């Protein structure tokens, strides 16, 4: 089967699911719309349990307000106030364990709706 024979959505899903980096897409309220298998491994939760949940659930409580404030400011203004590439922060596994993580953000527009997306990878010690 060639790439042109595949449905565009199916091809996109294959690319996302086989990425070694955690990938999620969020809406303007930071609700996760998708999560790949690397996200499952990284955060210790099945992708099906991540979708529909707040991205902030993957962060320690102490840094959630910073994300919420930055996201709110971005949604209101449409402007980035900091670099979105390789931001170091802390992730939170389902077990409660915190771990260093590097995040890159991007944005896609689908039918005029802004969809921020995130790629995550564990930082190497």
Structure description:
- The mean pLDDT is 82.
- 28% of the residues lie in helices and 30% in strands.
- The chain has helices at 8-17, 37-43, 47-50, 64-77, and strands at 22-26, 32-35, 87-92, 98-110, 113-122.
- A five-stranded antiparallel β-sheet has the order 2-1-5-4-3.
- With 125 residues, the protein is α+β, with helices and mostly antiparallel strands.
- It contains four helices and five strands.
Quick summary:
The chain is of the alpha+beta class. It has one domain: Beta-Lactamase (2-Layer Sandwich), CATH 3.30.450.20.
How many discrete structural domains? Answer: 1
- The number of E-state strands comes to 5
Helix content, binned percent: 25-40%
Under CATH at level 1, the class stands as Alpha Beta
What's the CATH topology label? Beta-Lactamase
* CATH homologous superfamily assignment: PAS domain
Secondary-structure element sequence?
HEEHHHEEE
Structural class: alpha+beta
Q: In angstroms, what separates the terminal alpha carbons?
A: 41 Å
The biggest sheet amounts to: 5 strands, antiparallel
Radius of gyration: 15 Å
Strand content: 25-35%
Query: How do the strands of the widest beta sheet line up side by side?
Result: 2-1-5-4-3
Count helical runs.
4
- The gross shape turns out to be globular
**CATH architectural label:** 2-Layer Sandwich
Set out the fold topology.
Layout: H1 8-17, E1 22-26, E2 32-35, H2 37-43, H3 47-50, H4 64-77, E3 87-92, E4 98-110, E5 113-122
Antiparallel strand pairs: 1-2, 1-5, 3-4, 4-5
